[in-house]
Amino acid sequence: QVQLVESGGGLVQAGGSLRLSCAASGRAFSRYDMGWFRQAPAKEREFVAAITQSGGRTSYADSVKGRFTISRDNANNTAYLQMNNLKPDDTAVYYCAGGIYYYNGPRPDPRNLDYWGQGTQVTVSS
Predict the structure, then answer these.
(1) Three-state SS string across the chain, please?
(2) Tell me: the pLDDT tens digits for 24-79?
């Protein structure tokens, strides 16, 4: 059993930066591929970024490439999402999620996500 808790959200002006954290409880965090997702009001949840167990591979949605960076610290059971040059369209609730086989293949597969956090709100003002 793994519990995920996001933090680091808030209100920021366009062009600003935030770093989200996803703290995992329980053992074996390093066995889990991790992902970040977001959901804006009246929109479906969408993929943002993913990282493999070791951090050796990452994947990003086209909308955030070059602006967001996913990383992880297995020694501290934490995954991160560094968000730079934020835009109003980035406003959403951001969720982290994990799965042992989530990023086993060439692309992350959301069907293999096992655990989700409760989300953290990010609001970008224009």
Answers:
(1) CCEEEEECCEEEECCCCEEEEEEEECCCHHHCEEEEEEECCCCCCEEEEEECCCCCCEEECCCCCCCEEEEEEHHHCEEEEEECCCCHHHCEEEEEEEECCCCCCCCCCHHHCCEECCCEEEEEEC
(2) 997 789 999 999 999 999 999 999 999 999 999 999 999 999 999 999 999 999 99
